[in-house]
Amino acid sequence: MVMESINPATGEVLEVFEELTDQQLETALEASREGFSAWSATTFSQRRKVLQAAAALLRQNTGEYAELISREMGKPVKEARGEVEKCAWACDYYAEQGERFLASEPIDTDASRSYVRYAPLGPVLAVMPWNFPFWQVFRAAAPTLMAGNAMLLKHASNVPACAAAIEGILAEAGLPRGTFQNLAIGSGRVEAVINDPRVRAVTLTGSEAAGRKVAATAGAAIKKTVLELGGSDPFLVLEDADLDEAARVAATARTINSGQSCIAAKRFIVADRVADDFLERFRAHLEELRLGNPAEPETHIGPQARHDLRDTLHRQVRDSVKAGADLLMGGEMPPGKGYYYPVTLLDGVTEGMPVADEETFGPVAPVFRVPDDEAAVALANRSRYGLGGAVWSADRERAEAVGQRLEVGCVFVNGMVKSDPRLPFGGIKASGYGRELGQQGIREFTNVQSVWIG
What we know:
Elements: E1 2-7, E2 12-18, H1 22-39, H2 44-60, H3 62-73, H4 77-101, E3 105-106, E4 113-120, E5 124-127, H5 135-146, E6 151-154, H6 160-173, E7 180-182, H7 190-195, E8 201-205, H8 208-220, E9 224-228, E10 233-237, H9 243-255, E11 265-271, H10 272-287, H11 307-322, E12 326-329, E13 344-347, H12 354-357, E14 364-370, H13 373-381, E15 385-386, E16 388-392, H14 396-403, E17 410-413, E18 428-429, E19 432-433, H15 438-443, E20 446-453
Parallel strand pairs: 5-6, 5-8, 6-7, 8-9, 10-11, 10-16, 11-14, 13-14, 16-17
Antiparallel strand pairs: 1-2, 3-4, 4-20, 9-19, 12-13, 15-18
Helix pairs in contact: 2-4, 2-6, 3-4, 4-5, 9-10
């Protein structure tokens, strides 16, 4: 079996990668065990130098890696540059903070001395998606490696060149052989890797369906998992919000990465009194966005990553319009090469429509109208997802109180939901469990060991 790197802007096959044979996979798993043995014995100072070296390589070659991301999955190149820079930030952050986050904690007991220590767990399998092909990997790898674990990467099959590049960066940065390895395998072989006794834990960012399969397999093997799955993030605009700023940020929050983000704003829940005014401003900002070649710096919206993803998005829009949604802009597939889909704005959206009930993974913005805060919170929470949410109001205390009632893993007041190395990131309900980033993220894949000395 081969994996093809395809340019979604043209449909052109860029490169072909051979899948690992069974013997190559066995060699990789054994190398991971050996790599963990060596890496876990290093000091924090030694690990710090490797992560700092990786950060330096990312910054030195930002343009090259950004072009690779743009070429392989269609991200506008200016956004791809930001993705690479954020990876460097995560490496530096954990290089600086990791030792403090994992310091032993003294506990008063009847012992002469007792404490809790955070010890590395072992090789961790990372099953990662295509939409942020560098960031998703580095936000998992930086804390996991700093904690002294090894990592095996099973990346999405449509970004094999990005996966190979990441492995090269960390090898050049000085990781011992086997400590970080790219497994070029299909999804059908993931179960066997999870079940291998040398693999101690799994982290997955991906679809709800993929999360269920991974969780079931890991649970049967009694192995720790962290799941960051889909999202249908609500973006609440209360009647006293700064509509200019809310509309401007809403346009970015919906269309970042051409709308292909788990934490993109996907349901715009707006107070009736200001809905018409907000829609006018929102539409004006959306109309300013340029759809086109992701390699050109003036492009805001690139192609969807695969043709089947675009087809699903168009079906969601078409069926929602048939169900009564008002199509204000977009909604038609453009002719020509590439998997492009225009920015689309829908008003009058109600529950039961695909754009309301399903996750929309593309530049489609559905607007719901509600009479008051109670209705806004109730609608926001009537979703099986619970990743992030945003609340907009001139009264920050009011917005914070509304935000605390949202059933989500992260709340942003008068701002756009985003991941930040300094804050734990993750969701609840069908959006998954566990946390990445922050102090909580680096402790997820450690053995929290109690030590009692008589």
